Amino acid sequence: MSRTLTVHEAGLAVADPRAYADEERLHDALSLLRRESPVHRVEAPGYNPFWVITKHADVMEVERDNKLFLSAPRTLLSTAEVDELQRQQREQGMELRTLVHMDDPQHRVVRAIGADWFRPKAMRAMQERIDELARQYVDRMVELGGECDFVRQVAVHYPLYVILSLLGLPESDFPRMLKLTQELFGGQDEELRRGESAQEQMAALFDFFDYFNALTTARRREPTGDLASAIANARVDGEPLSDVDTASYYVIIATAGHDTTSATIAGGLHALIENPDQLRRLKDDPSLLPLATDEMIRWVTPVKEFMRTASADTEIRGVPIAEGEAVLLSYPSANRDEDVFTDPFRFDVGRDPNKHLAFGFGVHYCLGAALARMEIQALYRELLPRLDSIELAGTPRWTATTFVGGLKHLPVRYTLG
């Protein structure tokens, strides 16, 4: 397919949500850019211009130099219309400001608020609960009678329960959180989005804010020893976080904390179905599970991009980047870079080393990386010994997105012991 794709068309694909729902098209485009234009200027209709960075080494270089390349003000790829809405919200003090939007020194201070909840000691304390939930969802697959949509009936719920339990949210609110997350991350997908206009899509974010503002008030009045209480009562330089920054902290934990993991769990199962030799290999040698988990993460790469803005004139791979210009870091491309990964389009449950960048790199390395790995391993540690057979029962479908996503439907037929 790439033989008929021009470099210009490949660049446009990076800004097309539909390309991320068509893996062949996406990777043809990214492979072409890596070969012929690894630092490529994109001027896509409806978007402000940007440079797309497709090589693993260059993505690492940009992430490493967080003083030259800033997260603000253009953190994610959005349409020019959304960019303008966000500019207006920034002026009004109503802009979403999560950890991924912040730069140092603010980023370092705010990140520390939740860091202890994701350290190894805290993760070990959660292991029993995560293992219990993994058993429940594999048992649920048995109850479903040997056929299910693995995404909708298993993968989206299991990590949701983990992260919202960590926050301390009531189980009765979990369905609402799932719907809001899907609307927020699925704003470019016809099936998942709330509406077609930018205003309608931003409404999901404001619904999050309303919910979490009420939660902040409750936790400040009566702390309950959970992560939500730690965020609500955190102080920076002796002052509590603003309502917007507090709500933003909840949003990034509640959304990124489960949507990315569910995408990896579902995409990992699809990869095992499509590569039965690797499924047999993993079943025969469970000690490979940690390596297989990172291969699933590399293979799916649920976070598709972050953007950085140059704070001074510079260059990448000899290409001049002017102060104020934005660069898009393409993680799916970096994670299939032929210079780093041997046979990168082969799914290999024993891949070692595996220098994927799916969790980012540098100061913005994913806060919940250890938790995500623990959840994925727990589910497959429970599922694989009980799995006698599995096959597709329909056509898998991916989310149209340029930010976070993966499979939105995975119909499977299986026998479980």
UniProtKB/TrEMBL annotation:
InterPro entries: Cyt_P450, Cyt_P450_B, Cyt_P450_CS, Cyt_P450_sf. CDD domains: CYP142-like. It comes from the Bacteria. It holds the Pfam family p450. Keywords: Heme, Iron, Metal-binding, Monooxygenase, Oxidoreductase. The keyword Iron applies. Coiled coil: none annotated. Belongs to the cytochrome P450 family. This is Cytochrome P450.
